Amino acid sequence: MSALGRSGVEVGGLAFGAAGIGNLYTEVSEDQAHEAVRTAWRSGIHFFDTAPHYGLGLSERRLGAALREHPRTAYTVSTKVGRLLEPTDAGGDDLAHGFAVPATHRRVWDFTADGVRRSLEASLERLGLDRVDVVYLHDPDDHAEQAFREGYPALEELRSQGVVGAIGAGMNQTEMLSRFVRETDVDVVLCAGRYTLLDQSALTELLPAAVERGVSVVIGGAFNSGLLADPRPGATYNYAPAKEELLHRARRLRTLAERHGTTLRAAALAFCSSPAAVASVLVGARSAAEVSDCAEQFATTVPDALWQELKDTGLLPAHAPVPAEEPS
User: Fold this and answer.
1) Eight-class DSSP state of 149
2) Which residues of 265-294 are buried (b: 16+ CB within 10 A; e: fewer)?
3) Which fold has domain 13-161?
4) pLDDT truncated to tens, each residue of the chain (328 aa)?
5) Where are the domains of the chain?
6) CATH class held by domain 172-315
7) Total-model pTM
8) 136 given a catalytic annotation
9) Which of 54, 75, 152, 195 is catalytic?
């Protein structure tokens, strides 16, 4: 277990990302969603991440229902603010935003102090909880100044009141996350897809800044939305079809991993967990089988020789931290 920054919130090394049970791209039944969470629990995963954005609240409702059978003190939940859900009678589905759910609500960007409080209150109602452990400002890319001037201070106040335990920001980029680390008193940032076997951009500024400031990092998107899980034709990278160059690189990585007696998935998860600032690796799953596989891969020891060959062949930067180089 690791504490998030200077907060008292502790998390395990592997976390369950609940976008999938919010019907990301395809429908998941209530039973399948519940069994995915139950399997995560049995696998020792007690850190769960969700957001209003995921399935227009469906992810939060399903996650809360599945966790109700466990003591509240036995698990950690993170959710996000920045998108308010407003009812709409427009009809249709939400697939334009990536979720196979009826479009009963529309998302409204809001990083004001009032918006943050309203979003958190609605999330607590959907989750069926009286508190969450971690709250992130969610994707404030195009709303930076409002997020820094209004949204972040609101989270800081909620933390000081004990309403939440840890606060931060979650994004698919490193530049603004680095600014949060340098200019605010966040406990944790969630960096998705920017520290993987295919993209080490977080290593330039974000991870060193996090170490310097005592801020924890949760790494999401370890498989870059699918390419590093299974580099087959049609695999996705950052939620779009992977370009041939990236597909070729992922296959080279897989070939080397298998030559060293391991899997690409195990190597991808181990690599993400290696930097000193990283407290947890967040993996999305929609089924019990996916959860079991992730837990198994995460527990696999990746041979030191693989890391050396990846660096020798230029597939990884020479200065990238790997498990063999971490102090015991």
Assistant:
1) I
2) bbbbbbbbbbbebbbbbbbbbbbbebbbbb
3) TIM Barrel (3.20.20)
4) 999 999 999 999 999 999 999 999 999 999 999 999 999 999 999 999 999 999 999 999 999 999 999 999 999 999 999 999 999 998 999 999 999 999 999 999 999 999 999 999 999 999 999 999 999 999 999 999 999 999 999 999 999 999 999 999 999 999 999 999 999 999 999 999 999 999 999 999 999 999 999 999 999 999 999 999 999 999 999 989 999 999 999 999 999 999 999 999 999 999 999 999 999 999 999 999 999 999 999 999 999 999 999 999 999 999 999 996 544 3
5) 13-161, 172-315
6) alpha beta
7) 0.96
8) no
9) 54
